[in-house]
Amino acid sequence: MPTAPNMRRARTSARWWHHGLAAPQCVSIRATPMAETSLMRPRVFQATPRPANASLRLSRGAAFLVAASSLILVFAGAGVPIPLFNTYRAEDGITNADLAVASVGYFAAAAIALLVLGRLSNHVGRRPVAIAALVSAGGGCLVLAGAHGIAALTVGRILQGLACGLASSSTGAYVVDTAPERPSWLAAAITGGAPMIGVPLGAIGSGILVDYAPSPRLLIYLIVAALLGLCVLLTVLGPETMARRRGLWTSLVPRVQVPAGSGRLLLAAGAAFVATWSIGGFFQAFSPTVTAEYLGTASALMTAAVFSSVMILNPFGGPASGRLKAAAALRVGMALYVIALIGIVVSLHAHALGPFVAASLLVGLAQGVACTGAMKALLARANTQQRAGLLATLYLIAYCGVALPGLAARQLVQMLGVLHLAEAYAALGVVSSIFAVVAMQAASHAENGTIDARA
């Protein structure tokens, strides 16, 4: 039969467990004479208080998923208007030149955000700037939901461009900060491929709703705006990976950031991004015209499919590049890309839809392989404070590689026509691809072949 002291110890242990604490240690479990009871006095344990909101914070793994989803969704919002361009032309009288202006406004806003605000998250934290990107993207969707002319269309696209610029640096750095260590290519694949994943997802979703759902000019924008709002709430609950520090106003002075010893590598990566992004700018501005005039269909879904074809296989390039060394991945990707560009031009001349789509799909795969390899090599040389600035610099190069040819295309489209513009974009892609391979080779020689070892 249990003795009274044992019963007291059992009740005391139960109370400790009820409060989530370990039971106090005892010197014995047998009945103890009264003279020994002083040894049985329980030790006083001080529970560490938890922050009131600790249970609401996301884990690091969950924060990574939210950051990656937010980055992709911002770019998905930028892809939503593409299938509606033919609708805007038919119902609002918007011309190809007007669409080129809106596209240039988008890319210019992204470039300015990268140049001026690219290092902002190093001083105010990753989350506040990531939230600002989501809010700007949502505002752009709401403006475009009521757009019926070139002015509103351009304003909406500028807001989306600003959001993409902010997200490319701050949210991209947040993705890298919270990414798991394995697989090693994952952070590089997401930060390098988010635009090529998000934009086609937004375009295809928009194309489906435009063709088969009511209120095609409104519904898709409201859906994306609601998803962006959800990402804002989840980002608020995520952990902050960058402490606030001084130098906020100095960080707003436009400049590019290149980690020491990464100059040649940045040139190689920048050339690869210019080569692959420039053709994406052509498709964004002129895929409705290409689809209607050269491929014989005005379907919004087909327009979205044609536009997305140059990006949709990008996610598969990341895992493929993981099997290759960084320099080899860039060489293989650029070689495939040149082959794809030749296929696009030949199929446009032949008005052949099947070969055109096949060549466009190859563009996305080649881009994923080349850009992920280059991005992985770059990120291996950047510390936490350098990541946002480095990503901003790289994406600034990429957006300039889209915006500057876009400005020229706006001036030349009436004179040359879309087919000859496609040839000019293909020539730019070939030259940039060659430069990327040469620059990567120079970087590898300069570092005595250590690029792949460090990546």
Summarize the helix and strand pattern as letters.
HHHHHHHHHHHHHHHHHH
Number of helices: 18
CATH superfamily of the largest domain: MFS general substrate transporter like domains
What's the number of extended β-strand segments? Answer: 0
CATH topology of the largest domain: Growth Hormone, Chain: A
- How much β-strand is present in the residues? under 5%
Cα radius of gyration in angstroms: 27 Å
How is the biggest beta sheet arranged? none
Q: What is the average per-residue confidence, as pLDDT, rounded to a whole number?
A: 81
| Annotated CATH architecture of the largest domain | Up-down Bundle
* Overall SS class: mainly alpha
Number of domains: 2
Cα distance spanning the termini = 69 Å
Q: Could you explain how this protein is built, in words?
A:
The protein is mostly helical and 455 residues long. It folds into 2 domains: 4-40; 59-454, Growth Hormone, Chain: A (Up-down Bundle), CATH 1.20.1250.20. Helix content is 74%, strand content 0%. The protein contains 18 helices and no strands. The protein has helices at residues 4-18, 60-79, 85-92, 96-117, 121-124, 126-145, 150-178, 186-212, 219-236, 248-251, 263-294, 300-309, 314-322, 326-350, 353-379, 384-416, 418-446, 451-454. It is globular. Mean pLDDT is 81; it is low at 16-52.
